[in-house]
Amino acid sequence: MGLAMTDDATTGWFDARIVTGAHPSSLVPSTDRDAIAAHLDTYAMSGALVSAMASWLHDPLGGNAEATAVANSLSDRGVLACWTAVPTTPGELDSLDKLVAQALAEGVAAFRIHPHSHGYAPDALLDLYAALEGGGLPLCVDAAEIGWTDLDTIATRFPMLPIVLSNLGYRQLRRLWSALRDHDNLSVDLVDFAAHQAVEWLAAEGLSDRLLFATGLGVRDPGESIVRLAWSGLDDETVTRIGAGNAQRLFAAGGLS
Amino acid sequence: MIGRQPQHRVVDVHAHLGPYSLFYIPDPDAATMVSVMDRTGTEVTVVAANRAIQQDAHLGNSHSLAAVDAHPGRIAAYAVINPWQDPERELERLAADERFVGIKVHPSLHKYPVTGARYAAVWAFAEETGCPVLSHSEHRSAYDAPSLFEAVAAKYPRAPIILGHAGITPAGVDEAIEAAARYESLWLEVCGSQMTGPLIQEMIDRVGSRRVLFGSDFPFIDQRMSLGRVVCAPLTDGQRQDVLSGNARRLFRWRPLPGGTGEDVDE
């Protein structure tokens, strides 16, 4: 008997990573407010998690306002903001606890960190991890921004902190496998999740609840993960879980339902 | 809504087969590849076994032929020519075995430039027969930067050469487009981790939709990554179908690819 496969299973997905703002060194589709709305329309998505390109490549904390502005203007479309944090540094940030409290008050659904790009060690953010764990907000990080040892340390020390690894590429399944095996709080999104049959492989190993649909619109071509999941070898139930269900669980504290 | 069923006919001109030492690939076998093709609307895929490109061309080429035999009509084979591993012997094998439909070279992996004498027999064979040659191409590579193929195209103008990855990086794509704009024997293939739909659109804007080819690199990388960039790119239906299958059907004429409806093959 074949897999249950209906087109309805490709509607209502939640895009767990969009980056709003211009990309300085890549030719990718636009990501302003209207382009994000069109993206949601075109692929019948239920919402998205949006962070700011400026937070990654220009002003880590100042860029958060740009993510919130887009989220607020598309709140009726299920768009949520993802803020960026950096270590406390006089003149830049006084308190990570206060930053997370402000984020919760403003309806932010997750935080993203860029230790490599922003020039600090991941252990400089212990207060952030504790605050996020307490508030139920996920921590998002690109594979290129953090080493596997640091990731293991954080996931071990904060076992209730949901961590979403992004931009894995196609060469890291050996390391990913051990990390997923060792840490129930670790998930991986589909942004450049490019290894052959890796989605099907993890699902067959019982880990479909650790996979999160995301396109990376702004830093990747969104068609990659859209077609990857839609034309996967998974049944409709699993596609829907990866497309939306897992995000509803992970981002519930930020208001996703 | 994308739906779960593909709406296009696909020919994948850049694929591999089997494991690769640097990283784990789940189920890199031919049967799994065909199962993926069934989900993506891929009629036929042209493979160069990883064993052939990474370590042993002769043995790996046998693996490719075994895949052809196991999946007739769905998989076709490139003969990998390694300039350090008796290229004349593999060219003779290619000429004698009709299961091979083209040549694959990987100058970056084999650390030898496309302009070197050890590749001359490959270009001469392609010039004489019209056999397509898929080459890795990589921006700033001393072995296969897109601009290096201009010298090959000038010397062997009837040798059809596919620039695999079209230079890989955004700047490499620009360089590949420049080369293809100067030489009609150069074709652009679209797989690569830095490729985007807008870059593919630029290829088509500059050289036309009839010399841009779909490839995926699978199972090195999942086929649906590259396919998604083309399926979702801002192309006309005609441009998209040219890229996804029509151009491959037109290019592979020395030994035509199996299958196909004939709709794509015109002058």
Automatic annotation (TrEMBL), chain B:
Keyword Hydrolase listed: yes
InterPro entries named among the record's database cross-references: ACMSD, Amidohydro-rel, Metal_Hydrolase
Residue ranges constituting the Amidohydrolase-related domain according to the UniProt record: 11-253
UniProt name for this protein: Amidohydrolase
Species whose genome carries this gene: Kribbella capetownensis
SUPFAM superfamilies named in the record: Metallo-dependent hydrolases
Top-level lineage group: Bacteria
Keywords associated with the record: Hydrolase, Lyase
GO molecular function: carboxy-lyase activity; hydrolase activity
Any Pfam family hit: Amidohydro_2
The keyword Methyltransferase is annotated on this UniProt entry: no
